[in-house]
């Protein structure tokens, strides 16, 4: 598990060779271009990143034309542009159609009318209102008032069982009125109906054109990668530094490929310079793990991408996630069902890259859950009988709250200690390490001190625990800001001690492992007791009803356990663990490469 070291490279060449270089770099597929300028406000001609959106638009057309297989007349960029413009036009037309229909329906109760010209109205306007019939009496008394408090002329033009439809004549909107105002524009009902007909015709014409474009769907689908590659090259070309007659490209490249890139640049007439990243720079993060632990990268990036100068927590997160999941599920029978389901779908999962990537994690959490379920002695909520083989493996009592809470706190403290140790390891200078190591020592001392109070056999360890806590917190005070002036160093160090409460709260947060595990076990036992009671109470159908209760109850409990295991297993990693172990967030390494993979082998 590691973050791949990167190098900063700058490639120089002549403007006339720029397109050839970008095409070569895209084939190389192992570098991320650093923009010299922002792409905001730039207008690109040709393909865009919306080619898949355009294809989806064409594929969802109700009717399709016969597919053309001859690519001679096929222009993928042109088809993409037409499809996207047509989609936008259809969206606007349908929106306008719905709006016009709504206006027509709103004005229908007011009858047929036409607006007079502004000169004929002498600056006055018509205002339309819908007034509930129960407020009609109030309307007759108060009417509509303008800003001066004067009553305005109005008339009820039609009524229904529940509403009265009123027109008011005024130069400005009435400030006091009864009912709800109807928004209108300058078009009469007849004009709105005419416009509705025009819009419907335009929509039909667009649909005809959309259907015509479907003849290119097959060729267009085959061109998606080429379109996206072309769009990527177009964007990359806009990110270079151009100073005629030369140009320059800056990029981040894995250190192991710098020599290969330099050699190829020289062969093709370009100049390539490389250097190590500076500490004030923020290179992207490229994590590399073994196939068995690479799914940990997905668990990590679900919440954040570690900064380049930090460390890769993928393997630790994967293992701790499996442990937390097991402690929350807390039942061997549920784990066995997950294992059987995994075995059944094993080959199917292996047919996709994502499935292959997730298979090791599913095996790990299933086995961990099975082992922990055997340790707590829960099999669908049933404890194995005394003297049986399984009872000898049952040494964790879920009903012993003191022991289980202590186990959860121990797991949490160890998790936080590991986070601080790993955070300290990433620093090359010992001075920078001592603050994180101080927290690790202080929390370890707290564990030792707590152990001395739980059992008299460990009472002698109380002094050791106290000394470790004092020593660790002293490191925190002295090395929170080691490069500041003495008085500021002491001030920042003292403020750093405020994290004592955060450490205490974060460790106690791991009590959810015990609470959720106990809830799962208790719910399983409750369903068992319910089924047993129903079986005894209903002699004829008791067995059938009991089986239904067991099936429904344990299915529900298992679903809740799995979902809780995923949610809280991730939460303890991305909140508590990352809070102590990952102090900097980065951005994922996004290589400039062809969609179908690198061609430069």
Short description:
The protein is 57% helix and 10% strand. By secondary structure, it is of the alpha+beta class.
How many strands, which pairing sense, and closed or not: the largest β-sheet?
A: 5 strands, antiparallel
Average pLDDT, to the nearest integer? 88
Distance between the termini: 25 Å
* Number of separate helices: 22
Radius of gyration: 35 Å
Specify the helix fraction band.
55-70%
How does the helix and strand content classify structurally? alpha+beta
* pLDDT < 50 runs, ≥5 residues: 597-601
DSSP strand tally = 13
Shape: extended
Q: Which band does the percent of strand residues land in? A: 5-15%
What does this structure look like?
There is one protein chain. A hairpin with a 2-residue loop joins strand 10 and strand 11. The strands form four sheets. Strands 2, 3, 10, 11 and 12 form a five-stranded antiparallel sheet that branches. Strands 7-8-4-9 form a four-stranded antiparallel sheet, with no helix packed on it. The protein has a two-stranded antiparallel sheet with strand order 1-13. The C terminus is likely disordered. Helices cover 57% and strands 10% of the residues. Helix 10 crosses helix 11 and helix 17 runs antiparallel to helix 18. The longest helix is centred in the C-terminal third of the chain and has 40 residues. By secondary structure, the chain is α+β, with helices and mostly antiparallel strands.
């Amino acid at each position: 598990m590691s973050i791949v070291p990167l190098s900063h490279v700058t490639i120089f060449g002549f403007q006339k060779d720029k397109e050839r270089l970008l095409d070569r770099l895209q084939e190389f597929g192992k570098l991320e271009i650093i923009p010299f300028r922002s792409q905001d406000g730039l207008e690109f001609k040709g393909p865009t990143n919306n080619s898949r959106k355009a294809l989806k638009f064409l594929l969802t057309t109700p009717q399709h034309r016969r597919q053309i297989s001859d690519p001679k007349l096929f222009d993928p960029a042109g088809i993409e542009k037409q499809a996207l413009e047509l989609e936008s036009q259809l969206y606007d037309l349908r929106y306008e159609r719905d709006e016009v229909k709504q206006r027509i329906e709103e004005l229908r109760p007011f009858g047929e009318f036409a607006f007079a010209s502004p000169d004929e109205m002498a600056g006055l306007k018509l205002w339309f209102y819908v007034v509930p019939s129960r407020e009609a009496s109030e309307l007759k008394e108060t009417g509509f008032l303008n800003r001066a408090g004067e009553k305005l002329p109005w008339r009820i033009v039609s009524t229904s069982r529940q509403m009265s439809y009123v027109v008011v004549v005024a130069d400005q909107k009435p400030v006091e009125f009864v009912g709800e105002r109807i928004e209108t524009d300058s078009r009469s009902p007849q004009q709105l109906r005419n416009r509705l007909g025009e819009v419907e015709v335009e929509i039909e014409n667009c649909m005809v054109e959309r259907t015509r474009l479907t003849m290119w769907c097959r060729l267009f689908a085959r061109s998606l990668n080429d379109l996206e590659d072309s769009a990527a090259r177009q964007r990359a070309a806009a990110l270079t530094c151009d100073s005629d007659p030369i140009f320059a490209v800056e990029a981040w490249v894995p250190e192991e490929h710098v020599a290969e890139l330099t050699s190829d640049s020289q062969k093709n007439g370009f100049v390539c310079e490389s250097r190590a990243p500076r500490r004030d720079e923020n290179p992207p993060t490229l994590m590399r793990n073994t196939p068995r632990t690479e799914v940990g990268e997905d668990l990590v990036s679900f919440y954040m991408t570690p900064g380049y100068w930090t460390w890769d927590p993928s393997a630790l997160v994967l293992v701790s996630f499996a442990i937390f999941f097991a402690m929350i599920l807390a039942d061997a029978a549920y784990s066995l069902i997950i294992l059987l389901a995994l075995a059944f779908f094993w080959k199917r999962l292996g047919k996709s890259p994502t499935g292959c990537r997730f298979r090791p994690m599913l095996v790990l959490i299933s086995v961990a859950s099975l082992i922990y379920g055997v340790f707590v002695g829960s099999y669908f909520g049933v404890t194995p009988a005394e003297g049986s083989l399984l009872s000898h493996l049952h040494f964790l009592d879920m009903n012993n709250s003191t022991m289980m809470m202590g186990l959860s706190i121990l797991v949490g403290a160890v998790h936080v200690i590991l986070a601080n140790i790993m955070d300290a390891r990433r620093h090359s200078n010992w001075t920078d390490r001592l603050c994180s190591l101080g927290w690790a020592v202080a929390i370890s001392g707290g564990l030792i001190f707590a152990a001395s109070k739980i059992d008299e056999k460990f009472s002698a360890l109380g002094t050791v625990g106290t000394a470790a806590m004092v020593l660790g917190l002293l490191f925190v005070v002295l090395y929170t800001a080691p490069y500041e002036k003495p008085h500021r160093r002491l001030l920042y160090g003292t403020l750093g001690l405020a994290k004592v409460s955060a450490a205490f709260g974060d460790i106690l947060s791991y009590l959810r492992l015990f609470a959720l595990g106990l809830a799962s076990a208790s719910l399983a036992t409750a369903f068992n007791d319910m089924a047993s009671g129903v079986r005894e109470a209903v002699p004829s159908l008791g067995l059938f009803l009991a089986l239904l209760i067991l099936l429904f109850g344990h299915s529900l409990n298992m679903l809740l356990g799995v979902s809780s295991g995923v949610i809280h297993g991730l939460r303890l990693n991305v909140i508590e663990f990352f809070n102590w172990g990952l102090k900097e967030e980065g951005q994922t390494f996004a290589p400039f490469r062809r969609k179908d993979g690198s061609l430069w082998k």
